[in-house]
Design a protein that fits this description.
The chain has 78 residues and is an alpha+beta fold. The chain is built from 1 helix and 4 strands; from the N terminus they run E-E-E-E-H. A 4-stranded mixed β-sheet has the order 1-4-3-2. A hairpin with a 2-residue loop joins strand 2 and strand 3.
Amino acid sequence: MAYVTGFTASTVEGGSREHSICTAGWRLTERSGERVLQIDTYGSPERQDAGTVSQSLQLDESRARELIAILRRAFPGL
């Protein structure tokens, strides 16, 4: 699990490889009394433990605002 404390634009050169396909879920939780959005990805069907939580990201309100700005930049039609 990762509690995101900030976003930076990636400077890694070269193309990214195709990732496996999975589903994601989200829920609201708390951390130190503060509301946090948690996004969980679930293992792909090919994974040994298919359907179990693979990765989790937690965002507080400030990081959610950052992510919204990034999404609007990436997808201007939103």
